[in-house]
Amino acid sequence: MRLYPVFGRRPSKTKVQAFRKSEHLVDGKFVNLTSTIMDTSLKTMYSTLKDFIKGNPNGRPHRPLPMANTSFQQSNHAQFTWFGHSASMLNMEGKTLLLDPMFGNAPSPLPSFGIKRYSGGLPFKVEELPVIDAVLLSHDHYDHLDYGSIRKIKHKVNNFLVPLGVGSHLERWGVDPAKIQEYDWWDELQFEGLTLVCTPAKHFSGRSLSDRNATLWCSWVIKGEHTRVFFSGDSGYAPHFKEIGDKYGPFDLALIECGQYDERWADIHMMPEESVQAHLDVNAKLMIPIHWAGFTLAFHDWMDPIERVTRAAKARNVAISTPKIGETVFIGAADFPQITWWRQED
């Protein structure tokens, strides 16, 4: 683990010492704002192993997913482009931001053996990416922070804005430390005309057997003069969504995780119906579900997240957009993608 760079690197003793001022660090580990149950009982481990062995014939698409052709043309209108799972691009007020840019084929320290991306690739070549003003990371799990992706894009990125401790991984991978800034929950920063806030999430972190919760996880508030966006990162449902909405809402767009859930780990990943409630809590005009259509990381059918979340949104009169991978959504526009493209493979 010390020699293989994909695992990243734990924060140094100096950094850990600096983290002690964070009220979210307890006995050297970061903790959630509310009690978080990670059930590791024999009964739960047995049922999980049983489901893993059984498998699910509908756990992934039967053919690669359709993708839109992504073009990186500049626009005066705020826009959002989703690349599958949580990886996405946000263009607003003259700035280009990448959110959790996991562009690899498998979320694994051994990509050749990992669970493969549904789409079979990306709707663009990494070389086509424009200059990125900032990469915003939510946490260090493999489906959000990818060694190969960072190595490919680091020369195009001016800044990496990350939760506490995550910068240590980036430094090991050759990112200039001067480009990396780390933040605690509720830290606000002024970034080239935007106000960014590192806000709470209910999750955990770690890339190896020995670094569980050694780094922080987060969501992000992105505020411009004309546009406000909320990015949930990975999170179980909890009161922090309402607190964020009360403090920084209303939002024009909320990017809310809705997949890879299970009752056995409901404290760290929301059920789709809870995702809609989280959207309502943060007080956003439009919801785009993320954290689905990328990889199979749970036992539910691959289409369950989007079917359940759109059904719940309709029941609660929530405006929801369902762009294809690579499709751009213009934030604040009267029209937005709503077709059920995922059913076209049936």
UniProtKB/TrEMBL annotation:
Protein purpose: Counteracts the endogenous Pycsar antiviral defense system. Phosphodiesterase that enables metal-dependent hydrolysis of host cyclic nucleotide Pycsar defense signals such as cCMP and cUMP.
Task: Quote the InterPro entries the UniProt record gives.
Answer: Metallo-B-lactamas, NAPE-PLD, RibonucZ/Hydroxyglut_hydro
Where is it found, in Gene Ontology cellular component terms? cytoplasm
Catalysed reactions, semicolon-separated: 3',5'-cyclic UMP + H2O = UMP + H(+); 3',5'-cyclic CMP + H2O = CMP + H(+)
Q: Which residues form the Metallo-beta-lactamase domain?
A: 97-292
An example Gene Ontology molecular-function term: N-acylphosphatidylethanolamine-specific phospholipase D activity
Protein name, as recorded: MBL fold metallo-hydrolase
Gene3D superfamilies per the UniProt record, alphabetical: Ribonuclease Z/Hydroxyacylglutathione hydrolase-like
